[in-house]
Amino acid sequence: MVLITGGLGYLWARIAKYLLESGYDVRLSTSRKDFIIPAEFSGANIVSMDLSDSTSLTNGCSGVSTVIHLAALNAQACAKDPEQALLVNGLGTLKLLRAATDQGVNNFIYFSTAG
Question: Are 1 and 26 in contact (CB under 8 A)?
Fold first, then answer.
């Protein structure tokens, strides 16, 4: 099972589509409460995950062999609120990495952009 974080973003959708079409079991995570998953992702397992909540991260990583981590605040949000950026992009990634390690995840792929 491959877990992709970063709920419904541009890159998230392209990677998810490719993996699903290639026959992978895919779990897609989002922190959004009200979301509509496009029909093309109906074969995926959808979970709600919050990078500040260790329990949701542990549950999201359960049974996963690979995490593709795309969840983060964008450059504009980071510039507007650097403290929140550190909490989400820094501490949230660390918490996810710890949950993945605790759950025996073999691969952790981290994407980052600079804008």
Answer: yes
User: Residue 82 has which token pair?
Assistant: 């650097």
pLDDT for the residue numbered 4: 95
Threshold 0.85, pTM exceeds: yes
Sign of CA dihedral 21, 14, 111, 32: negative
* DSSP H helices in 1-115: 10-21, 54-61, 75-80, 82-85, 93-102
Q: Tell me, what amino acid is at 114?
A: A
Domains of the chain: 2-110 (3.40.50.720)
Q: Per-residue b/e over 41-76, b at no fewer than 16 CB within 10 Å?
A: beebeebebbbebeebbbbbbbebebbbbbbbbeee
